[in-house]
TrEMBL record:
<dbReference type="InterPro" id="IPR003594">
    <property type="entry name" value="HATPase_dom"/>
</dbReference>
<keyword id="KW-0472">Membrane</keyword>
<protein>
    <recommendedName>
        <fullName>histidine kinase</fullName>
        <ecNumber>2.7.13.3</ecNumber>
    </recommendedName>
</protein>
<keyword id="KW-0808">Transferase</keyword>
<feature type="transmembrane region" description="Helical">
    <location>
        <begin position="35"/>
        <end position="53"/>
    </location>
</feature>
<keyword id="KW-0418">Kinase</keyword>
<dbReference type="GO" id="GO:0005524">
    <property type="term" value="F:ATP binding"/>
</dbReference>
<dbReference type="Pfam" id="PF23539">
    <property type="entry name" value="DUF7134"/>
</dbReference>
<dbReference type="InterPro" id="IPR055558">
    <property type="entry name" value="DUF7134"/>
</dbReference>
<keyword id="KW-0175">Coiled coil</keyword>
<feature type="transmembrane region" description="Helical">
    <location>
        <begin position="103"/>
        <end position="123"/>
    </location>
</feature>
<dbReference type="Pfam" id="PF02518">
    <property type="entry name" value="HATPase_c"/>
</dbReference>
<feature type="transmembrane region" description="Helical">
    <location>
        <begin position="82"/>
        <end position="98"/>
    </location>
</feature>
<dbReference type="InterPro" id="IPR036890">
    <property type="entry name" value="HATPase_C_sf"/>
</dbReference>
<keyword id="KW-0597">Phosphoprotein</keyword>
<dbReference type="GO" id="GO:0046983">
    <property type="term" value="F:protein dimerization activity"/>
</dbReference>
<feature type="transmembrane region" description="Helical">
    <location>
        <begin position="129"/>
        <end position="150"/>
    </location>
</feature>
């Protein structure tokens, strides 16, 4: 029951304060019939009770109006007794201590102290003024400490709530930034998948078109490669689009992110597409993190894709060499073609080809260089630290 009343009061503060002021006003009417200045007493009662309704929005103004009404009451020299309404003055003072700045609340305490002493002087006279002043001071100090303490606690809780809201907002912003970064990463992955798969399909389609009449077996193998490559690309794109839509893959059966174990398959696919590729591994192979393994796979994939696109029809060999040094893995992809490469600033490169490879390597503190080889051909060399620097 008590909790329900407190909750209702917090949800309807103006109504609650109005009810308190109204109840005090009605109680004060009983005293007015005992004194000759009933009309003046009624006006003072209204002046003391009505401002209490706005105590939360205008605490200092409410206290000032009620203090002025109390001064007018004192000037009547006891002809009007408004004791119940004067209790609201104490509550108004408490409200100032709880809601206003310390300097304002201390000034209100001084006004309340002087007012209390004047009332004691009128009622008790000078003989009992010292003892009355002691009691009034204790009352004023107690009310001020009570109000100031609760006000400080209320301000502290409000600051905690504001901080929680701010932290939640920052967390949402960080989540949006992370989501944007993930979308950018998936966009690069989709480019790599589509670019690699379409280049294979185009080469195979051209080969099938030339072999369709004279070499039907070769044309059939080319069409099978196109079919397999297309299905694999669709599977990859479905998985990535599922991540974009739902935040996680739709089905565990989708192909996982490729890594070092899939390099043999990548090289085999390149061979089936008509590009002779040799894969060699030097040094002692080391276990790589999934991110580094994916970076190596995508670098080799993009380099072979560029070879198919730009090395020309006379390319006779491409070579992929992985060299495990003490703390570095070097990935070198070379060919003996015409030494041409896609421009990084073209739409085809668009920041996803050679530029994309540089971004992948730079993310792990490595470096990448690419360009024509002396004596013909083109090479891509990536140096990837095996440990985080």
């Amino acid at each position: 029951m008590y909790d329900a009343v407190v909750t209702w009061t917090r949800n309807h503060p103006r109504v609650a304060d109005g009810a308190v002021a109204g109840a005090v006003f009605l109680a004060n009417l009983w005293y007015l019939d005992q004194y000759p200045h009933a009309a003046v007493g009624l006006a003072l009662t209204v002046a003391l009770c009505a401002p209490y309704v706005w105590r939360r929005e205008l605490p200092a103004t409410t206290f000032a109006v009620m203090a002025l009404a109390s001064v007018a009451q004192w000037l009547l020299k006891g002809d009007v007794d408004l004791f119940p309404a004067n209790l609201l003055g104490i509550l108004a003072f408490y409200n100032v201590a709880a809601r206003c700045r310390r300097l304002v609340s201390l000034a209100a305490a001084g006004v309340a102290e002087v007012g209390g002493l004047l009332i004691a002087l009128r009622v008790e006279g000078t003989a009992e003024l010292a003892s009355a002043a002691y009691g009034i001071t204790i009352l004023i100090v107690s009310v001020w400490i009570w109000g100031y303490t609760l006000g400080t606690r209320r301000a502290y809780l409000a600051s905690l709530q504001e901080r929680a809201v701010r932290l939640e907002r920052e967390r949402d912003n960080q989540a949006r930034i992370a989501a944007a970064a993930e979308r950018a990463r998936i966009a690069r992955e989709m480019h790599d998948v589509v670019s690699h798969s379409l280049s294979v399909m185009v080469v195979q389609a051209d080969g099938a078109a030339h072999s369709l009449r004279g070499q039907p077996d070769r044309a059939e193998r080319a069409l099978e490669t196109i079919s397999e490559t297309g299905r694999s690309a669709l599977s990859e794109m479905r998985r990535m689009l599922g991540v974009l839509r739902d935040g996680e893959p739709e089905d565990d059966s989708y192909t996982p992110q490729p890594g070092m174990a899939q390099l043999d398959q990548l090289v085999a696919d390149a061979r089936r597409s008509g590009l002779p590729v040799e894969l060699t591994v030097d040094g002692v192979p080391r276990e790589l993190s999934s991110g580094r393994a994916l970076a190596v796979y995508r670098i080799v994939q993009e380099a072979l894709t560029n070879t198919r696109k730009h090395a020309g029809p006379n390319v006779s060999r491409a070579r992929v060499r992985l060299w495990y040094a003490e703390d570095t893995l070097e990935v070198r992809v070379t060919d003996d073609g015409r030494g041409a490469a896609a421009r990084p600033d073209t739409a085809e490169g668009g920041g996803h080809g050679l530029v994309g490879m540089r971004e992948r390597v730079a993310a792990y503190g490595g470096s990448l260089r690419s360009g024509p080889r002396t004596g013909g051909g083109f090479e891509v060399v990536a140096s990837l630290p095996l440990v985080t620097r």
